[in-house]
Amino acid sequence: MITFNRRAILFISCLLLVGVANAQGKIPGGKIEEGFEYRVLPDAQPVTAKGKVEVIEFFWYGCPHCYDFEPELSAWVKSQPKDVAFHRVPVAFREDFLPHSQLYYALLAMGKADALNDKVFYAIHKENKRLLTENEIADWVASQGIDRNAFLTNYRSFAVVSKAKAANQLVMQYRIDGVPTIVMQGRYVTSPSIAGSKAKAIEVITFLEDKIRKDRYK
Q: Is the overall model pTM greater than 0.90, yes or no?
């Protein structure tokens, strides 16, 4: 009869768990496979930047998971070469969330989206501001040193309202069922929930980036 002491059993158990996790590709350094860590859209969507790696993040300012993923994603974006084209698409799964989409596009139109993106997340998730009414949004934006009237002109503009509504059409085209979700080159889809963790999602994004380059941006 073969016996093992408790320490040996624990050690073997840990090895088995790591092996399973690697086989599933759920920890950094594990395998990355289509259908597990990412999926491929049945109908590829056209890219807007030819000869580049197009990366789209579908997000919602009110989503705690988007807020949690933002530091890792932003760090990845800042480290990328010039052939990576990164865009954000705000998602409003409900009509009353559309003000968040308008907020993003109004800031984008004013060239302030990158500067205030993290602050919007912080205001909602750490300062308990809903930012779902025009007055509340305008007051908050003004507190950030932006002219209130200039912001409202953009916020109410036909272009911004149209972009906010069109963003929800993209949700259907890209088959987005949750956020945050990353779509690359109009065909590859991944996210922290699909990949298994935030760290693994970044690893998958990098893997797909290399794949797209090797495939000559296809």
A: no
